[in-house]
Amino acid sequence: MISKLFRKKSVDQIMTDAHQGSGLAKVLGVRDLVSLGIAAIVGAGIFSTIGLASYEGGPAISLLFIFTAFACVFTALAYAQFASTVPVSGSAYTYAYVAFGELFAWIIGWALVLEYAVSNTVVAISWSQYFVSMLKGFGISIPGWLTMAPGYALDAHEKFLTDGMEALSVADRAGLDAYLSAPRIGDIPIIFDFPAGLVTVLVTWLVYIGIKESQRASNVMVMIKVGIILLVVLGGIFFVKPENWTPFAPNGLNGVMGSVAAVFFAFIGFDSISTTAEECKNPQRDLPRAMILCLVICTVLYVAITLVLTGMVNYTELNVKDPLAFVFKYVGFDHMAGIVSVTSVIAITSALLVYQLAQPRIWMTMSRDGLLSKRFARVHPKYRTPSYATIVTGIVVAIPSLFFKMDFFVDLTSVGTFFAFILVCAGVLYMDYSGLSAKSKFRVPYINGKYVIGLGFVLAWVLIYLYGQESVQEWQQMSAVDIIRHKSLVLVFWAVWLVLAVMGYRLNFSLLPVIGILINLYLMSELGASNWMIFIAWLLVGLIIYFGYGYKHSKLNRGD
């Protein structure tokens, strides 16, 4: 049984299966891929979570964007090598099947549901908030009980009963109004986010009818969203007050790193274009180029807009869900705020579209391997899209977006994505060791890490001893139970670095994939323990499904 769980698929076998099973239309070029990448990356992250990140970390969040992009570059290089070697729609799922075997492939495929389907719930909720704001600008109001998750209204009502009306913020008052005005079944108020569910249905329909139609719509929306971001940057420069950048990191390193999930969420998506490999004209050439290009473009946009936002308004005012529109209202430029609200709706729609494209194609690939029902591999005879998987994705995204709060999903999405990124970087090390890299048309530049990885480990501890005494004292004051409860992931990080140093010395590991593993693992360790508990529960559910269905029906294990 153990040997079956870790049985790998060869590159030739994967390519044969994809050729026999795919009926997808090959229509995408490098420009289309860059457009889809920007559409995925520049979405809810920059239009909503960037405000919360700035509130927590101040102007120094711009540096966290650069650091996170730095981590993503190493991961993007690893994805690019895999995409040039195995140009099929399974993304990290397929890459794990090649490098680590079936069980790890399933775990990654299940984790990718968090990155694409679950994160799209955040995007849909963010879209709803901007859409409602836009309608208000035109004098159209939707009842509050139709525009928010019930949790917001219930929290506002409880806060009202505890602290009174004076303690309620503007958002809390909107939640209280929704609670009081909502129709009821008995004593239960009926509250849900109708616009979030509606846009998910409409985008799912567009994805269902064709990749070419989706790509054209994405190209138009990307042009609009990049245009509005440039407009915000260029227009906002005139309202920047340098004193707002002081203090630069008001809450110190903890405040900056506490926003890792929100900032990383803003970068999620560059890997999504690897799921369109079977619809590319020349995937082995175009996918690596597109990943790097869209990541560089988006990083420049993020840093510029973060500095402008925190320069226009003091960071303490940015704890809002529509920061780009808010800052122009704050400085009295209401017309610009209205333009931002309208174009933000279009911009976030494009991100929703790309994620709705990605998830069905991963399920389609898993189904072709026998790990999911055959229905997920159905390709529509007319539209040439994975029809059944697309419909299921629409349902999986639409229903939670009606009823759940946005912040519940942001951290959870980041955990699943970090996990996938680490395994993809580790997969490149395996490809180098096994000789598979010889089949790659694009390779991560090789820098011998034989000595550097270990020296970096020693240097890190020297720097902690010299400059990290506050952190050392914090650890000394903690009990063993507290360390396990709150710092176990940090211990895992150092243990992994030590193991990589030893193995790197023995096997001459390539340095860049190792850096990708360590940076992603470090960022992962900054997430809260509660998110990890939910993630582990998510993986356990996935393993139940695998052993209940996937293990028995796996084509590889049956010898098909």
Tell me what you see in this structure:
This protein starts with a helix and ends with a helix. A two-stranded antiparallel sheet has the order 1-2. It has helices spanning 2-5, 11-21, 30-41, 44-57, 61-85, 92-99, 102-137, 150-163, 170-181, 194-209, 211-236, 252-257, 260-265, 283-312, 323-330, 334-368, 387-403, 407-434, 452-467, 469-477, 480-507, 511-525, 529-553, 555-558, and strands at residues 184-185, 188-189. Helix content is 72%, strand content 1%. The radius of gyration is 24 Å and the shape is globular. Helix 3 packs across helix 11 (211-236), helix 5 (61-85) runs antiparallel to helix 14 (283-312) and helix 7 (102-137) crosses helix 17. It folds into 2 domains: 2-139 and 195-436, Amino acid/polyamine transporter I (Up-down Bundle), CATH 1.20.1740; 150-191, no CATH class. With 560 residues, the protein is mainly α. The mean pLDDT is 80.
Keywords:
transport; Amino acid/polyamine/organocation transporter (APC superfamily); Amino acid/polyamine transporter I; CAT_C; 560 residues; 2 strands
